[in-house]
Design goal:
This protein has about 325 residues and is mainly alpha-helical. The protein is flat. The chain starts with a helix and ends in a 5-residue tail after the last helix. The N terminus is likely disordered.
């Protein structure tokens, strides 16, 4: 989760904002309200996929010690970005607000991803827990890719600049590559019948992705109604193939089984998971009020913003404390 490729997978909102503003987007054109809605959708998807559903396999190659370091370091970044966003709100600085909202979305996404991965590592390696059986394919990258591609194509549909179209193309290409890699891994974990299907789906993704990315690049070079229409036409097969992959992967024979967590371990992991869920909820409520501030301009919003930001900081502090408790308990050595 530390490299560029991983960052671009988890930080698709940030990539869209970062690349789109390279052409000098004017403040009044920075659609902060839309970004707020997309941020809420993203955090809801992440928490639902990782905190309301037990994992049956690793999320990354990161060790438990690395997870603890990431949680502590990223929590500090989130606190700093939150303070900057509150300052940007007071100054009505929409471009900076968009950057901070995207940065917070990335930070909190990484906190949730890391929490989920750390809890899985403990449960799968502790002697009092029953090890799980990995699923054929990891459901989380599939859900993340579906949302990222959908939001990128939505951004394109709002008649963006060339830089914004390039941002959409970059997000689409990144996540379709992730899906193809997941299909390749699934081929190694399944029987002959499923291997054939995952290989076929991977080829289908390659074909539909090639057409869509080519259409987006063509529109960048030749921005006409015809090339725009082609992007819309070739978006449909991509989204349909992703939906087919998700539906096929949900078959019970491919689902896997999460580790069975003992009471001894559960008493340490539940506070971590609970703090991460509280963080997700607090952040969603905060961004929902930020959206209201942007669109409705409520009177004296400072007290509400302060209360929501305090809830986020409290959840972050609880997550760090719970993480340190797990580390001190020495439930896992790596």
């Amino acid at each position: 989760m530390a490299g560029l490729d991983e960052r671009r997978a988890s930080d698709f909102l940030g990539v869209l904002q970062e690349l789109a503003q390279q052409e000098g987007t004017r403040p009044e054109n920075a659609d902060a309200g839309t970004l707020c809605a997309e941020t809420i959708t993203t955090i809801t998807m992440v928490s639902d996929a990782l905190l309301l559903r037990d994992r049956s396999q690793r999320l990354s190659e990161q060790s438990f010690g690395g997870c603890c370091d990431t949680l502590i370091a990223k929590s500090k970044t989130v606190t700093i970005d939150l303070d900057h966003l509150l300052a940007d709100l007071k100054q009505h600085n929409h471009p900076e607000m968009c950057k901070r909202i995207a940065a917070l979305a990335e930070g909190i996404t990484i906190l949730i991803e890391t929490t989920s991965h750390a809890c899985y590592l403990v449960a799968d390696n502790h002697g009092t827990c029953l090890p799980g059986t990995p699923s054929a394919i990891d459901h989380y990258p599939l859900q993340r890719a579906k949302l990222a591609v959908s939001l990128a194509l939505d951004a394109f549909s709002r008649r963006p600049t060339n830089a914004q179209t390039m941002a959409s193309a970059a997000v689409v290409a990144t996540h379709l590559e992730v899906l193809k890699e997941e299909c390749s891994r699934a081929e190694e974990r399944t029987d002959a019948s499923a291997q054939v299907m995952f290989k076929a789906i991977g080829r289908g993704l390659s074909g539909t992705a090639t057409m869509l990315v080519a259409a987006l690049k063509d529109h960048i070079k030749h921005p006409t109604d015809r090339t725009r229409a082609a992007c819309t036409i070739f978006s449909a097969p991509v989204l349909s193939t992703i939906d087919a992959l998700i539906t096929y992967s949900e078959d019970e024979s491919l689902a896997g089984k999460p580790p069975a967590i003992s009471k001894e371990v559960g008493k340490y992991l539940k506070p971590m998971q609970g703090a991460a869920m509280c963080l997700s909820s607090a952040f969603a409520l905060f961004i929902r009020f930020v959206k209201q501030c942007i669109e409705d301009k409520p009177i004296n919003p400072e007290a509400h913003l302060a209360r929501y930001s305090e809830s986020i900081n409290a959840a972050v502090a609880d997550l760090v404390a719970a993480t340190r408790d797990v580390r001190k308990a020495e439930l896992i050595t790596n």
